[in-house]
């Protein structure tokens, strides 16, 4: 026994007596405590895990990429900005050769200098299996993010050259994933990533000071951060894994944390009523049905695809979610810089849906019967069961009868990877999948490029249209920003006009916080900036 | 007695082997890919294959089992896929946290369970019996995660007296039995104590009622023994069974209630198992289940030995 029961009993009695007068212990000014949805502290060594949440809390806080995301605006969709590289560009004669100019005078938290050698060292950490610093865990997270990279080298202490496998103008978006860890700190800690995980060193605005696996991580500002504008104002940032939604809500309500990620939709009204702030914003996420286009799939008929898109009452669905959704008008959220001007209006129009289905040979009397794979829960999947039931009812009203194959989230990921033809997909003609759509590759290319059909990629439905592939090629070869945006708009217009997905809704990335949290700007991004936040002295 | 203990220790060996086989196979029978949760969703097949080989999942199941068992016998439970940390360290930390919680919950449950059981057993069909029985029925019937949520709503969210989640203001790393840490223990311990309380109360009530109706009690009273003396005999006769039940309950609580530990984010074995299940973290799952199963085996052994010490008739049987 760790301590004597008698002594413990006495202390318990004391606790009981004092409990009435006890309230949440006062914390130092300027400490922000966040309840995350992850069940563990994401990987702290640089190339973090736990998806978007991992990068948000342990990626862009402790580390920087050569290119960062601009997280300063709530109104505009965020774009890339210089990070540890001040500029980058492709060679005019050889479109596979990129030069990155690095920011001078940048230091890691351990005091060592950031240089071109550190960039190459970090890429070797992910891509070169025989490098001493190669880390399989970080490699598993980072390697897939930079598929275009063929090689890289130091040109001079502040210049790095990248060679891509083929001309690829989307390289900057890929590079924005790669976080720079300190080679000197890794050397100092006996070349051990396990030791580094406890005392990580990056160049980011926050320094990790405490790492208690599964319980908490604490960070303090890195006062020497290279961007004076982003030196954190808080004294401390505390991250607490609280995977259970009700536990997060209780922690917020009792004042144990100041901010929670993803409050349960049914707790939002009561949280608002109790004076908490619910912060939401559009961000590059969508909740769709990814359609099978294999031979014999009913979705090969554009009338069926359009009918399904017109049958869904997205405003009703938003109401079901307590307002925490943005009805889809396309594959990208409305107002996105790549939205373009599609001609097909994604709206609730059941009459037109019935008409289109009748043309395709279906009616409520002779319904189209479909099987769709959905998950019961999952990261980014919102509330998949009630939402899909709602959609099922909408579709039934126009003559599409849907049966669901409900599978566990990991199984759905495996189905998604395996493709519509695989046995594991159980003959379903669509899967309900939510997407991270932050860059041209994750947003468009990976879903529909012909040669990304499984096992080469995640074109789950085996869609293949040479016209779309041509547009993807154009996007990869559009090295001018405006030209690239114009091509991406055309791609999105084709996504919508051909109704290539059943486009249903977008999440709004809700977070609930105490009114004493000031200065937070929720960027239209999966990642966020915590530098400008302060904690007011008064308030709950 | 020594021979009895040695005999029981010999019996433990095949049980432990069986436990290791079952817990290894069970986690492999469950659907889902252990690497799904740790790799980015759109990881290429080559990356997935690389990771599968690195963790040895490409080998046949019997080979995987043999390798795993060999490592386990050398005190190595493997490396967690999700965290990259040694499973032994993860499980040890969690077991200590669950032990703290389970001990307190057991003390609360056993104290009140025994109290209610004796009161009800001694005063059958009285108001006190009905009240004690109602409480014990409530204890075994109420879903304890629901009770946990209600306690959190009342004592944390509404009154703000007690913290709703975690093991201490700075985590469980520096846990010590001081006021700041005990505040975090109260709600989960009370929640977890209701089931053992109910079970022990019902058992003790039945035992006491049964013992009181036996001839030897009449004989004791006829001999002129006062009620305090009779009570001592009743306690002595009820103790072995009550102890066995308490041992089992402690085992269950040590396994950490997945629901209660998740509701309170208490970093014990239940919380760990929950994370391991959702992340398909096979090494962590196997290691945790094995350690917990062995806890049961050892606890059963201890309880048997203690029962024998309290009631020598058991050994003779």
Characterise this structure.
- The complex is a heterodimer of chains A (540) and B (317).
- Helices cover 31% and strands 20% of the residues of chain A.
- Chain A has 540 residues and is α+β, with helices and mostly antiparallel strands.
- The model of chain A is unreliable at 1-28 (pLDDT under 50).
- Chain B has 317 residues and is mostly helical.
- The relative contact order of chain B is 0.15.
- The interface between A and B is large, with 68 and 67 residues.
Keywords:
heterodimer, A: 540 residues, alpha+beta, 21 strands, globular, B: 317 residues, mainly alpha, ABC transporter permease (chain B), transport (chain B), membrane (chain B)
The overall pLDDT average of chain B reads 84
Total of helices of chain A: 17
Oligomer: heterodimer
Q: What overall geometry of chain A do the principal axes of the alpha carbons give?
A: globular
Q: What separation lies between the terminal Cα atoms of chain A?
A: 39 Å
């Amino acid at each position: 026994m760790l301590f004597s029961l008698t002594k413990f009993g006495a202390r318990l009695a004391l606790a009981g007596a004092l409990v009435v007068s006890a309230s949440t212990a006062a914390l130092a000014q300027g400490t922000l405590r966040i309840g995350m949805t992850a069940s563990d502290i994401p990987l702290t060594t640089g190339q973090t895990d736990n998806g978007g949440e991992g990068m948000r809390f342990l990626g862009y806080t402790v580390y920087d990429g050569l290119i960062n995301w601009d997280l300063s605006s709530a109104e505009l969709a965020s774009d890339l900005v210089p990070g540890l590289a001040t500029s980058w560009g492709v060679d005019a004669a050889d479109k596979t050769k990129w030069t990155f100019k690095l920011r001078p005078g940048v230091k890691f938290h351990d005091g060592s200098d950031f240089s071109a050698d550190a960039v190459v060292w970090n890429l070797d950490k992910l891509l070169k299996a025989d490098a001493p610093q190669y880390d399989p865990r970080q490699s598993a997270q980072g390697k897939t993010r930079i598929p275009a990279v063929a090689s890289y080298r130091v040109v001079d202490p502040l210049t790095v050259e990248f060679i891509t496998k083929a001309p690829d103008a989307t390289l900057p978006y890929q590079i924005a994933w790669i976080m720079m860890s300190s080679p000197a700190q890794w050397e100092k800690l006996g070349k051990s990533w396990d030791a580094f995980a406890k005392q990580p060193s990056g160049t980011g605005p926050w320094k990790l000071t405490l790492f208690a696996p599964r319980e908490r991580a604490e960070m303090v500002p890195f006062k020497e951060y290279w961007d004076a504008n982003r030196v954190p104002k808080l004294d401390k940032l505390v991250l607490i894994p609280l995977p259970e939604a009700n536990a997060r809500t209780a922690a917020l309500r009792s004042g144990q944390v100041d901010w929670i990620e993803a409050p349960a939709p049914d707790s939002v009204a009561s949280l608002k009523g109790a004076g908490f702030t619910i912060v939401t914003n559009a961000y590059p996420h969508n909740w769709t049905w990814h359609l099978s286009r294999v031979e014999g799939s009913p979705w090969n008929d554009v009338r069926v695809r359009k009918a399904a898109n017109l049958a869904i009452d997205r405003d009703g669905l938003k109401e079901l979610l307590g307002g925490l959704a943005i009805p889809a008008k396309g594959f990208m959220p409305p107002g996105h810089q790549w939205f373009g001007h599609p001609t097909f209006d994604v709206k609730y129009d059941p009459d037109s849906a019935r008409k289109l289905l009748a043309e395709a040979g279906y009616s409520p009397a002779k319904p189209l019967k479909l099987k769709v794979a959905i998950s019961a829960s999952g990261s980014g999947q919102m509330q998949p069961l009630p939402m899909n039931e709602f959609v099922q009812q909408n579709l039934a009203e126009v003559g599409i009868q849907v049966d669901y194959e409900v599978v566990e989230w990991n199984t759905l990921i495996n189905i998604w990877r395996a493709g519509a033809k695989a046995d594991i997909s159980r003959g379903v003609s669509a899967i309900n999948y939510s997407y991270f759509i932050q860059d041209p590759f994750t947003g468009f290319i990976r879903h529909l490029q012909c040669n990304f059909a499984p096992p080469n990629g995640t074109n789950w439905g085996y869609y293949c249209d040479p016209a779309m592939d041509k547009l993807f090629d154009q996007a990869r070869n559009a090295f001018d920003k405006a030209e690239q945006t114009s091509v991406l708009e055309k791609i999105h217009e084709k996504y919508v006009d051909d109704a290539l997905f059943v486009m249903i809704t977008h999440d709004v990335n809700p977070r609930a916080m105490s009114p004493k949290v000031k200065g937070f700007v929720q960027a239209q991004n999966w990642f966020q900036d915590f530098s400008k936040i302060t904690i007011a002295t008064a308030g709950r | 007695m020594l021979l009895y203990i040695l005999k029981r220790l010999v019996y433990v060996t095949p049980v432990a082997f069986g436990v290791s086989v079952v817990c290894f196979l069970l986690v492999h029978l469950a659907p889902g890919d252990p690497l799904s949760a740790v790799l980015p969703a759109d990881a290429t097949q080559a990356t997935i294959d690389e990771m599968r080989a690195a963790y040895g999942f490409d080998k046949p199941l019997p080979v995987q089992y043999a390798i795993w068992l060999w490592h386990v016998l050398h005190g190595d439970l493997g490396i967690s896929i999700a965290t990259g940390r040694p499973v032994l360290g993860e499980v040890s930390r969690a077991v200590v946290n669950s032990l703290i919680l389970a001990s307190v919950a057991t003390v609360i449950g056993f104290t009140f369970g025994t109290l209610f059981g004796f009161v009800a057993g001694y005063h059958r069909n009285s108001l006190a019996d009905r009240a004690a029985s109602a409480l014990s029925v409530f204890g075994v019937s109420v879903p304890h995660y629901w009770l946990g949520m209600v306690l959190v709503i009342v004592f944390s969210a509404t009154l703000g007296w007690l913290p709703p989640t975690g093991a201490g203001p700075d985590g469980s790393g520096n846990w010590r039995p001081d006021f700041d840490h005990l505040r975090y223990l109260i709600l989960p311990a009370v929640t977890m104590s209701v089931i053992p309380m109910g079970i022990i109360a019902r058992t003790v009530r039945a035992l006491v009622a049964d013992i009181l109706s036996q001839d030897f009690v009449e004989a004791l009273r006829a001999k002129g023994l006062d009620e305090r003396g009779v009570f001592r005999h009743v306690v002595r006769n009820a103790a072995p069974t009550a102890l066995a039940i308490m041992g089992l309950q402690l085992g269950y609580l040590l396994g950490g209630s997945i629901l209660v530990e998740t509701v309170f984010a208490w970093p014990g074995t239940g919380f760990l198992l929950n994370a391991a299940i959702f992340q398909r973290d096979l090494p962590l799952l196997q290691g945790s289940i094995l350690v917990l199963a062995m806890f049961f085996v050892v606890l059963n052994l201890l309880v048997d030995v203690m029962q024998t010490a309290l009631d020598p008739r058991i050994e003779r049987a």
